[in-house]
C-alpha cells in the first residue's frame, strides 16, 4: 500500500515508518523542514516537505496514497509540562493540524485514516479493567484539542472510508520522557506520579510502530493499545533496574502531586487498560515489557 505518515520524524512516527517499510509498504514521511528529510530516509521512507496546518498543501501531498497515519504530537518533557504555555504547540497540532489532515485525506481520496490518540483520556478506574466502552474523562477544556481530533477522524469515516483511532498507553523506550525518568531515578530524585498500588499500562515504541502496521487490518473504531498493565510500584522497580540505580524510582510527595494541574494529573490516574479488542482483531501483541532487560536501548 502507499501510506503517508505525518509526524514522521517524531518518536512515534519514525517507528511507524520503519515498521511499515519492513512490512513491504511504500511510505511517504511528512516533515516541515529540510533536516527532517534524512531522518525519514534513514528509516526507509520517502520524505516530503509540507505544512501540516495547510489542508491544500496536505491534499497535494496525500494524493495517490491509500492510507494516512497521523502521529503528530509535541508533549513537553518532565515538570516543564506545568508551565502555562508548555502545551500550546501540542494543542495546536491536535486541534488544528489533525483536523486539517483528516479533511485533506478525504479531499485527496484516501480511503483510511489511522489517528494516534491517548489512553490517558480514560478516568482513574482503580484496579478495574478499562475497555474501549468506558466513557472518557475529558470534560476539562484542556482536553478539547484531543476531542476535536477524534471528531475529525470520526467525520472522516463516512462515504465508505474508515478511521482507526489508537488510544496508545504510556510510551516507554529510548525517548526524551523515559530518558528523563531514568536519569532522575539514577540520581535518586522523585519522578513518578500516582500511587504505588495504582495501575499503569505501558507501550514500548517498537510495539507502537508495529501497532500502526496492525491497524491497517482493523475495522473503523477505537482501540486501546498497550502491554500488560502493572502496578506503579512494579514500574518504579523496573525503572530502578533499567537505570542501574541504587533502588526503585521515587514518587513525588502527595503535596507536590496535589499541585501538578490538569495536564499532569492524568498521570496520577490508575489505568489498567485492556488491549484485547486490538489484539483479537489484528493479531498484534506487545513484544517488549518493562521487565525486558535493555528496553531503554532498543
Ligand atoms: N502515549 C504517550 O505516552 C505519548 C504520546 C506521544 C508522545 N509521547 C512522548 O512525548 C515525547 C515527545 O514526543 P512527541 O511525539 O510529542 O514529539 P516528537 O517526537 O518531537 O515529534 C514531534 C513530531 O511532530 C512534528 N511537529 C512537532 N511540532 C510541530 C509543529 N509545531 N508544527 C508542525 N509539526 C510539528 C515534528 O515534525 P517535523 O519533522 O516537522 O519537525 C515531529 O515529527 C516522547 O518522549 C514521546 O514518547 C508519549
Structure notes:
- Strand 1, helix 1 (11-22) and strand 2 (26-31) form a beta-alpha-beta unit.
- The protein has helices at residues 11-22, 37-42, 55-62, 88-107, 144-156, 176-187, 205-214, 232-242, 254-257, 262-265, 276-282, and strands spanning 2-6, 26-31, 46-49, 67-70, 112-118, 129-130, 162-168, 170-172, 190-192, 199-200, 202-204, 221-225, 230-231, 250-251, 272-273.
- It is α/β, with parallel strands linked by helices and 298 residues long.
- It has a seven-stranded parallel sheet with strand order 3-2-1-4-5-7-12, sandwiched between helices. It has a two-stranded parallel sheet with strand order 6-15.
- The longest helix is centred in the N-terminal third of the chain and has 20 residues, at 88-107.
- The protein has one domain (2-297): NAD(P)-binding Rossmann-like Domain (Rossmann fold).
- It is globular, with a radius of gyration of 19 Å.
- NADP nicotinamide-adenine-dinucleotide phosphate binds next to helix 1, helix 4, strand 8 and helix 6.
- Residues 7-13, 31-33, 36, 52, 72-75, 89, 93, 118, 168, 170-171, 175-177 line the site of NADP nicotinamide-adenine-dinucleotide phosphate.
Rg, Cα atoms, Å: 19 Å
> What order do the strands of the largest sheet run in, or round the barrel if closed?
3-2-1-4-5-7-12
Can you say what the CATH homologous superfamily is? NAD(P)-binding Rossmann-like Domain
Write the H/E string, N to C. Answer: EHEHEHEHEEHEEHEEEHEEHEHHEH
CATH architectural arrangement: 3-Layer(aba) Sandwich
Low-confidence stretches: none
GO molecular function: aldehyde dehydrogenase (NAD+) activity
InterPro entries: Epimerase_deHydtase, NAD(P)-bd_dom_sf, NAD(P)-dependent_oxidoreduct
Protein name: Nucleoside-diphosphate sugar epimerase
Organism: Brachybacterium muris UCD-AY4
